[in-house]
């Protein structure tokens, strides 16, 4: 397998080669970012687009996006022991690895180091589904300030992939490059567009069965499964990655997008982003441990910001306690390239020609005034959306997330190809 070590010895040459060029581009992006953040605060639906009032081109029980509401106060991080998530009966949860090139051939152009890396994650599915003649899977991509855990929270009843598998459907979650179990290069080595390219490479490998699968489980398939239907799901800016991959490369059968709109940026988002941006312009957060990769920053400067920005005030205290332990740094190159990626997205979103479902949290302090966003998908044959009335940004684990699990399964059933 072609891979880059996560140890520092392999990072220095790439960092030295790319850092000056990337820092110069960061400075150039500073002005553009201010413009983008202002632009993304409110973008109306184009003339003739369907109104964002819960209407759809297919039957659906989804509700309209809620009007903007005041930001909730930070939830209290009570030390409530969570009941660990238990794998449903008949479901397998298998480590997977994808060998990828850190390049950007997407339509959201940005700079990446071009090196090969390993992206790691899990395939979670009913064992019987993996034996189907034409199995379907949803690739789930996390956002900037989370990780694979947003889909796999270790709290019973709040683990998206467990709940989806219990309803009969397969999913693949990954830690994006620079996060969690995946390779961790210098934080300036990649960018949002490259992460879209990587997502596309993962989709292609899922279709071809060209990835590595831990087959040690007694009910695991002997070789990687080739999936006939591949959906892309995204949370927060992971949805931006999924949208960019879909419009740049095709190859996906639908988009399931949560906690995201390329419009409705709030003052809370601006404050967090610009603070982190300034840190990145200085090279990222300082590290005290020898060998730690450089060029990383926390999008939320404090744990209070992280919790308030993620969860609504009615969040289960056990969820809050579990999420609190997962506050981590993000690659600067990815985060600071997102404003321009949003501009590209707004220009291209009308070309997405696959079914789309969106999930909003009405108490999301990072996005408000998103009612017009579904109407921008003017080429999609089916656009549906729903809003969780008591949820914040982390809609996959917040209050009311059971509805998200139900809708994800129903949506996959509706759009899966039949042999």
From TrEMBL:
It holds the Pfam family Abhydrolase_6. It comes from Nocardiopsis exhalans. Gene3D superfamilies: alpha/beta hydrolase (3.40.50.1820). One of its GO terms (molecular function) is hydrolase activity. This is Alpha/beta fold hydrolase. Keywords: Hydrolase. Residues 46-75 are annotated as: Disordered. InterPro entries: AB_hydrolase_1, AB_hydrolase_fold. Residues 139-406 form the AB hydrolase-1 domain.
